[in-house]
Amino acid sequence: MFLDDERSRRLRPGILTDLVGQYMNDSERARLLGLPPSTRIRERAKVVSPERLVLGDHCWIGEGAVLDASGGLEIGEHTSIGLNTLIFTHSSWLANMMLENHSGSDLIERKPVRIGRGCFIGGLCFVMPGVVIGDFVTVQPLSVVARDLPDRSLAAGNPARVFQRYDEEHVRAEAERVRGGGGADRREP
Predict the structure, then answer these.
(1) GO MF terms on file (predicted)?
(2) For the structural domain made of 6-182, what CATH number should be given?
(3) Strand arrangement of the beta sheet that strand 66-68 belongs to
(4) Where exactly are the structural domains of the chain?
């Protein structure tokens, strides 16, 4: 039933890790994947090439997110990656066009992605290979990030573009508004 070739032997541990991880809580799953203990990584999230992922403390990875770290992926502390968000550090488009889309093709291009600290990447986003997202950036849901985004910005769309820049004073004022009772119930489930 199972193949016993080099590729299968290389892929099988990751497949089993994904399977076992579905039956764990966030902390257990983080430990299984070698992530910081403060990481909250939800069900069905997948990390491709976890040995190439650098993840800061207090990150949240949503259900169904795919973090492709095969080209190198760095995510700063206190950053959230939304539900079903896809972050890719490789592209096989040229391998497809040249009819050379096979495992190990030298036409699969890999470029690192860096996402800063204090970021919120909304659900159902797509981050393209080679992108740098600065610190304290919010990317609205359903966005495609194809270009770098500067620090302290709000971006949205396909392709994502910056709609607003904000400074520390604005963020502090919003925190005070929420803490002062203007926000919804903040208890964690």
Answers:
(1) transferase activity
(2) 2.160.10.10
(3) 46-48, 66-68, 86-87, 126-127, 144-145
(4) 6-182
